[in-house]
Amino acid sequence: MYSSPSPxxxxxxxxxxxxxxLFDPLPAQDALTRAANAAGATLLxxxxxxxGDRAGFTGVALLAESHISVHTWPEHDYAAIxxxxxxxxxxxxxxxxxxxxxxxxxxxxxxxxRGLLGQPERRLxxxx
Length: 128
What we know:
By secondary structure, this protein is an alpha+beta fold.
């Protein structure tokens, strides 16, 4: 009996619609820290950049297990979140913390298994 290999990591790509807390990166640093801790990940560093004039921010939590990133568009009430973790870290727990922080009306999530070694070649999009 053949068992399929476990992925090396999980990659969550989340879109948060009608979200809040999209302007100020300082409290988002705490949310990124809490998201890393909830996942059981090892937080190495958190960095954010404020685009000024209430134009949103970008933030990244660098993890030993990879990363969590957030990019906000307050003019569209939208945030894009990218969570990639390997090992025993739980990216879904991270996403729950960020959903609680940004309080979106709707979240769309794609989950990608990364590093499925020994599997046939997969194409995610034409031309790639």
